[in-house]
């Protein structure tokens, strides 16, 4: 079968390898869609300390079951499934307390295990053990189902930031994650949703699809001033930074309303993670700053439901479909931000 394997930073190879076999407790799937994101670009360029090459990349996975390993029950060949990306251990103190997104023993598809840039893939027993294999509801395509994983991360972020009815929400960063944040905030009953980005072209493309109440080009205007103007000086109830930008995080504090919540959804570069925080803003305005680290298996199941119910449409966000042979083009398109969501159909 064909796979795209990471060998070293800048060295991703299209290779022919034997099909994997489902061992006891595992499930083998025919990958139908594996979508790409900024993480794939980062891995391609810099590698990752959890990846021991060669490793098949790809973590936004949907496909159909072709073979069951010994002892697997409840599934059949032909079942359409979506696979979680982050695998909690299910046994540590955090997992026992229900904090599965921050399991210190977390492993990931495409990092510790071969991922979905392949014609076939084995779902590890550990995924099945934590209910990380989800049945794709009728009417949901494989490409849409593959977006359940990023949507699950967005859902985790908005739960932690308590996005609720009537909230004015600012999303900073108009990539695919920013688009999902706008859609989910709407589904949760947000009042107004504003979308900001430095890049006017990317912002226009995203805004054309997800239709925020205002699109703010932070390359051309002062985003803090603009948000204060739009909210009658009050600021936003929730500010979500879906960009790897310390400046955006600092601005987020300044544009939050009293008792506002700020989600540092996107992480910062490892070598530059320190920001200046006006602690008195946090103190007097009773601000809450929250992080977000991936998603739990339960978030994936709920995200799939949101897609199936039409609460969060995702089909129109998939603007490029490429074959496995074109994986390098996919990485390049994602790196340039030239599409909203790019999916690989192996
Ligand atoms: Zn991703
Ligand atoms: Zn754990």
Automatic annotation (TrEMBL):
The keyword Metal-binding applies. SMART domains: PKS_ER. It holds the Pfam family ADH_zinc_N. Its cofactor is Zn(2+). PROSITE patterns: ADH_ZINC (PS00059). Residues 7-344 form the Enoyl reductase (ER) domain. Keywords: Metal-binding, Oxidoreductase, Zinc. CDD domains: iditol_2_DH_like. Belongs to the zinc-containing alcohol dehydrogenase family. This is Alcohol dehydrogenase. It comes from Microbispora triticiradicis.
